[in-house]
Amino acid sequence: DSGVTQTPKHLITATGQRVTLRCSPRSGDLSVYWYQQSLDQGLQFLIQYYNGEERAKGNILERFSAQQFPDLHSELNLSSLELGDSALYFCASSVDVGANYGYTFGSGTRLTVV
Amino acid sequence: SQKIEQNSEALNIQEGKTATLTCNYTNYSPAYLQWYRQDPGRGPVFLLLIRENEKEKRKERLKVTFDTTLKQSLFHITASQPADSATYLCALDGDSGYALNFGKGTSLLVTP
Q: Nearest C-alpha of chain B: how many angstroms from A108?
């Protein structure tokens, strides 16, 4: 157990639907990062939050949004889902805002859009 | 934009040998470079971090070098074991200075 909790582990949904992925960071970590991993693209950075505020954005689609709550857990919302959104979605946390500490990753949510 | 290149071909080596994986990057000068291990279907696990002013870092059987002139990092696993078989990812701090950008990884297979 890495200390980062992601739910659900698996999600199967239809095109056009909306889903919410949840992440609880490791105790004491203030930064939460969301990554998408597909076979051909590797790990793609989506978005980062630090202590409740958005700090960095990567290749996140407009159909996707995220937030970090006062208790530091984060949610990633994916809407108008397409077949190409099928992927592993990872959440990671770190103690600081930058890359000067290693990240702790969760076990991921496998999203399948049918 | 920043580009991170890792050998897409799998590396097969015999148990007990040293495995060396390469990470090259372009269009950026990172302050930090990190290496992760990822097993199939699982989240990456942090292994080592090296700063731009450090040439080399060691941790047990692992060694990382960082050459900012060549824009390259080498990751070594000495006395490799079958349990070291996994995909190894290189990551750099991004253009924004915050989140890590990852390479696609190199698969390592250590055979007995």
A: 6
